[in-house]
Design brief:
It is a single chain. This protein has one domain: Rossmann fold. It contains eight helices and seven strands; from the N terminus they run ααβαβαββαβαααββ. α2 crosses α3 and α5 runs parallel beside α8. Bound molecules: S-adenosylmethionine.
Length: 237
C-alpha cells in the first residue's frame, strides 16, 4: 500500500543517529556495560510467559541483544528496525551465537507489514520515543492489530512520571545521576534524548495504550524514568 504524503517519515532518525556505525558500536558497548541482558530477558520471559512455541516480534531491535537472548526460548523471533546498519550488526551477533530462528526485517512501527504467524508477544524497548505522540498512538494501534488474540505487549521506554513544578530539578538530577553512574557520554546522550526525542508523560502513554485497545496489566515506574508496561490485547475492542 502506498504511504500517504502526510505520514511521519519514521525512516529518518530523530535524535541519536542509529544509522552511524560508530554510534551503533558505542551504543552496544554502553548497553553491555549498563545492562544485564540475560537477566532482563529472563525476567521478560517469566513475566510474559514466553514458551517454546511462542512467536515474538520485537520493534526497534537495535543491536539485537534481546532478540538473540529470547530466541533460544521461543519458536520464532521477528526483529524489526528502521536502521539497516543496526540490522547488520544485530544479524552478525545472532550468527555468532548460532541463532537461526530470528528474521531481521527493515521496517518500523508505522510501516512494517507482518507476514507469518501472528505474534503472541510484541516487545519494544527504548524505541517508541522516536515517534511524536500522534504517531505513537498509531504505532500502538498497529501493534494491537498485529498481535494474536490474547497476545501481550511489553513496552519499556523513558516515560516521564514527575511533578511538573519540579521538572527542571528532576531532569538536572537525572543527568547528574547518569553521569555519575555511567560517564559523561551517557549524560550527554540523555540530554540529547530530552532535547530532540519524543518521550512523553505517563498519563499520556497510559491513555494511548488504552485507546489503542490494550489492558494495562502491570506498570513499573523504574529509576531514571525507565518505565515498563505489560499489556494484554483487549479483544473486545
Ligand atoms: C535506543 S535504540 C534501542 C535498541 C534496543 N531495543 C535496546 O533496548 O537496546 C532505538 C532503536 O530504535 C530504532 N528505531 C527508531 N525509530 C524507529 C521506528 N519508527 N520503528 C522501529 N525502530 C525504530 C533505532 O534505529 C534504534 O535501533
Amino acid at each position: 500500500m502506498a504511504i500517504p504524503a502526510w505520514q511521519y517519515d519514521e525512516m529518518k532518525q530523530a535524535g541519536t543517529d542509529y544509522e552511524a556505525e560508530d554510534e551503533i558500536r558505542i551504543y552496544d558497548e554502553r548497553m553491555s556495560r549498563l545492562r544485564d541482558i540475560e537477566s532482563e530477558t529472563a525476567a521478560i520471559i517469566e513475566t510474559l510467559g514466553i514458551g517454546k512455541s511462542s512467536v515474538v516480534l520485537e520493534y526497534g531491535t537495535g543491536t539485537g541483544s534481546f532478540a538473540a537472548a529470547v530466541s533460544s526460548h521461543c519458536r520464532q523471533v521477528y526483529a524489526v528496525d528502521i536502521s539497516a546498519p543496526m540490522l547488520t550488526f544485530a544479524g552478525k551477533k545472532a550468527a555468532s551465537m548460532e541463532r537461526k530462528n530470528i528474521e531481521f526485517i527493515r521496517g518500523g512501527f508505522l510501516t512494517y507489514t507482518h507476514r507469518g504467524p501472528a505474534p503472541d508477544f510484541v516487545i519494544t524497548q527504548l524505541a517508541l520515543h522516536h515517534l511524536p505522540d500522534f504517531w505513537k498512538l498509531i504505532a500502538l494501534k498497529n501493534i494491537h492489530d498485529i498481535l494474536a488474540p490474547g497476545g501481550k505487549l511489553l513496552l519499556k521506554d523513558v516515560v516521564f512520571s514527575l511533578q511538573l513544578e519540579k521538572y527542571e530539578k528532576t531532569i538536572d538530577y537525572t543527568v547528574q545521576a547518569m553521569e555519575a553512574a555511567a560517564g559523561s557520554d551517557t549524560g550527554a546522550n540523555f540530554i540529547r534524548h530530552i532535547q530532540q526525542e519524543y518521550s512523553t508523560f505517563d498519563w499520556i502513554m497510559e491513555e494511548m495504550l488504552y485507546r489503542a485497545g490494550f489492558i494495562i496489566d502491570q506498570a513499573d515506574y523504574g529509576e531514571l524514568f525507565l518505565t515498563t508496561y505489560v499489556c494484554t490485547k483487549d479483544q473486545t475492542r
